[in-house]
Amino acid sequence: MRIGIGFDIHRLTAGRPLLLGGVTIPAQAGAEGHSDADVLLHALTDALLGAAGAGDIGTHFPDTDPKWKGAASGLFVAEALRLAQQKGYRVANADLMVLAEAPKLVPFREKIVGAVAALLKVEPGRVNFKARTMERLGPIGEGRAIAAWVSVLLEPEGDR
Ligand code: MG
Q: What is the pLDDT along the chain (160 residues), one digit of tens a residue?
């Protein structure tokens, strides 16, 4: 088995859509970024690449490349998964954590888990979603940023 960890943080700006796991969340502000700025899928991509021993998101999808402007971040996850599969692995489980002061994300848990499970080509029981605030501390707590931590475990294809 191989484990990977991913982290990402984006600034929040009024008027931008807020995407988490490919799901649009009604919110006052959305994440800034070169692609669709889905902070959760960026952390997931890095966790997958880490577990696969395949580098990082900045190397594969540089934000200086106009090709990725406005890109749906599901594409990054799909490519990272393809690299893992190429090495003979599939996802055993993924644990997702979003740090945001607002909005409350629990009502979107099932939708996000379903969307991420579909991207990872696993059943929803292999994906866990958690959300927490920063107790109004720091840039996240002040509502100026949103961040995500993700860990992914890969297992050899033949194991189940
Ligand atoms: Mg990012």
A: 999 999 999 999 999 999 999 999 999 999 999 889 999 999 999 999 999 999 999 999 988 888 888 889 999 999 999 999 999 999 999 999 999 999 999 999 999 999 999 999 999 999 999 999 999 999 999 999 999 999 999 999 986 7
Residues with CB under 5 A from ligand 1 (ion): 8, 42
What is the distance in A from the centroid of ligand 1 to the CA of 90?
23
CA dihedral 27, 28, 31, 34 (to 10 degrees): 110
Q: Which residues contact 58 (CB under 8 A, 6 or more apart)?
A: none
Q: Distance, CA 158 to ligand 1 centroid (Å)?
A: 33
pTM, to two decimals: 0.96
CATH number of 2-159: 3.30.1330.50
